[in-house]
Backbone:
């Protein structure tokens, strides 16, 4: 059974059709890179998978481990195992990062029928993860993403990914706005997360991220559907020839 | 309001600083009460309700502690030592009426830096309080009005040059409550107000800060949660009479259900107050379809050489914030609670902040 199965997905935003019959199968342990020109529907796919309000599914199925999640609320999808690393993580002044992470971990534990994480062990784990991502532990006391640079926000997303360890990670242009050092740190975090029990949908504009996170499959999205698929060499060809070559 | 009571409320003998006879004062007060500016300030609270509150007898508030360097005394309102309140007949007639009626006030004098906070509990007490900080004196004052009783309070503050007052007001009682606060700041004095409260059957807060000499610094941080059908009417006046002073005001209110929150924040910069740097920001959230918010920032500026900014927003919780929480598994109810608490915590700072934030959290649970 596929970890993620998307079939004939049609979706629109504000009445405009963006996804036009998209199909995608992700097996456990696989990393699928989604590439494509601006406006091809990459971020819409990410938001539709996460259930963002305003992104309306007109037709098609989204299944996670065989269960239809298309009608679930966003927090229910997170409980089911979907994690969206945001392209533009929001700042939430007044809610400390640590408080937010604990609230998230508690909610997910509750949904799984597990005990809430022990507070002391949880704090220790978060601090270790922050250190591994070159995030100053002092940031954990500040408001969620408050005053963070673009790179720090993206690393904070990866910290959440590693902490919450979801079934499916959807990374929406996680590489945008990162310098080469930060890109390597983020990529290392994703590679740490990557395993036989989970899957990754990696949305990116550029091939350079794929030097560090080697995908099993590369798909090219155009006008809301996948028009070409291949292995990592497809990304190299796209880098060389541009999207016009396939769209 | 008619003449409810002005004559009935007034005693036969009046403080000499008024310069008015018992026969003249009712007319002077009525003129003030009927003025256009007064009507505007009392647009969202019936003034008669506050005048009714004044009918209760005044009792001295209790303090939990009397730190070294702080002296207290109950003195006659007519005492030469308390100063001249006559100019306030036109701007704060209710407070003057209260001063005349009570005939006494509690005077608190601070003449040195005081490390230990002074905590006053009002209960049913309503005697006016005059707080005076000498030059370079420092005090942290905490006022608690958390009993479910009908009560009124007026606090008059004089800050001498170089003095510092860090002031928290916590008002979570559920009765009818009127608070009047007047602060007069001398050169290089520093005043910070942390105002934490909940809506009540009636909660009216009049705050008038006067920056009277250059170099003064004023900060007002206010956080309020209004549940059910409660009321809050916060009237702020920041008056800059002198140059090169700064003021910052940040007010966050949440009105739930059918509550009604009003914030009228006025910055008045006089012609001779060049170089003033003043800001006021009032943000409001509604958590119910029937909640009412009235927000009115006002600028009255008579000189060009100033920096002055004001803003007001009314809205609901940010949809992007809610989705971000949902994306991490936090359901809508929990996310609303988390985000509302954060909105208030931004302004619920200073002494007693943790206690106030816990009270807000209880309302949101």
Residues:
């Amino acid at each position: 059974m596929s970890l993620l199965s998307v079939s004939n997905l049609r979706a629109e935003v504000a009445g405009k059709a963006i996804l036009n019959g998209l199909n995608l199968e992700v097996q456990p342990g696989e990393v699928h890179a989604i590439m494509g020109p601006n406006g091809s529907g990459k971020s819409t796919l990410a938001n539709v998978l996460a259930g963002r309000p305003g992104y309306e599914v007109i037709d098609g199925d989204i299944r996670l481990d065989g269960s239809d999640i298309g009608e679930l609320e966003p927090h229910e999808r997170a409980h089911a195992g979907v994690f969206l690393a945001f392209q533009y993580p929001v700042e939430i002044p007044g809610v400390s990062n640590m408080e937010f992470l604990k609230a998230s971990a508690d909610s997910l534990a509750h949904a799984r029928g597990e005990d809430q994480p022990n507070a002391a062990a949880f704090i220790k784990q978060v601090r270790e993860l922050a250190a591994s991502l070159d995030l100053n532990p002092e940031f954990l006391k500040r408001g969620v993403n408050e005053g963070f640079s673009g790179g720090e926000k993206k690393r904070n997303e990866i910290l959440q990914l590693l902490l919450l360890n979801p079934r499916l990670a959807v990374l929406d242009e996680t590489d945008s706005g990162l310098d080469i050092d930060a890109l390597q740190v983020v990529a290392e975090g994703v590679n740490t997360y990557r395993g036989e029990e989970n899957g990754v949908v990696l949305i990116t504009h550029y091939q350079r991220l794929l030097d560090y996170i080697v995908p099993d499959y590369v798909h090219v999205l155009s006008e809301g559907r996948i028009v070409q698929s291949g292995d990592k060499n497809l990304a190299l060809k796209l880098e060389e020839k541009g999207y016009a070559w396939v769209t | 309001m008619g003449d409810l009571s002005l004559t009935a409320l007034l005693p036969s003998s009046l403080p000499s600083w008024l310069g008015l006879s018992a026969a003249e004062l009712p007319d002077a007060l009525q003129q003030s009460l009927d003025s256009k500016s007064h009507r505007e300030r009392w647009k969202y609270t019936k003034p008669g309700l506050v005048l009714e509150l004044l009918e209760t007898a005044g009792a001295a508030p209790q303090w939990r502690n009397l730190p070294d360097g702080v002296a207290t005394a109950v003195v006659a309102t007519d005492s030469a030592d308390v100063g001249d309140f006559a100019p306030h007949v036109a701007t704060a007639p209710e407070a003057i009426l209260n001063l005349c009626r009570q005939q006494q006030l509690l005077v608190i004098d601070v003449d040195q830096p005081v490390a230990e906070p002074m905590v006053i509990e009002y209960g049913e007490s309503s005697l006016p309080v005059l707080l005076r900080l000498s030059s370079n004196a420092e005090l942290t004052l905490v006022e608690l009005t958390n009993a479910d009783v009908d009560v009124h309070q007026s606090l008059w503050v004089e800050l001498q040059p170089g003095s510092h007052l860090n002031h928290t007001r916590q008002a979570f009682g559920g009765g009818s409550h009127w608070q009047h606060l007047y602060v007069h700041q001398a050169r290089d004095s520093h005043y910070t107000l942390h105002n934490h409260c909940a809506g009540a059957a009636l909660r009216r807060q009049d705050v008038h800060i006067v920056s009277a000499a250059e170099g003064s610094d004023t900060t007002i941080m206010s956080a309020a949660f209004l549940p059910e059908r409660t009321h809050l009417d916060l009237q702020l006046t920041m008056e800059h009479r002198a140059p090169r002073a700064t003021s910052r005001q940040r007010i966050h209110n949440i009105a739930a259900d059918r509550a009604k929150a009003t914030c009228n924040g006025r910055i008045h910069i006089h012609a001779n107050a060049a170089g003033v740097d003043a800001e006021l920001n009032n943000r409001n959230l509604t958590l119910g379809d029937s909640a009412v918010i009235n927000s009115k920032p006002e600028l009255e500026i008579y000189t060009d050489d100033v920096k002055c900014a004001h803003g007001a927003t009314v809205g609901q919780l940010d949809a992007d914030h809610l989705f971000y929480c949902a994306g991490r598994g936090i359901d809508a109810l929990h996310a609303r609670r988390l985000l509302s608490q954060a909105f208030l915590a931004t302004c619920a700072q200073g002494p007693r902040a943790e206690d106030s934030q816990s009270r807000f959290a209880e309302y949101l649970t």
In short: Chain A touches chain B through 29 residues (CB under 8 Å). The domain at 4-245 of chain A is CATH 3.40.50.300 (Rossmann fold).
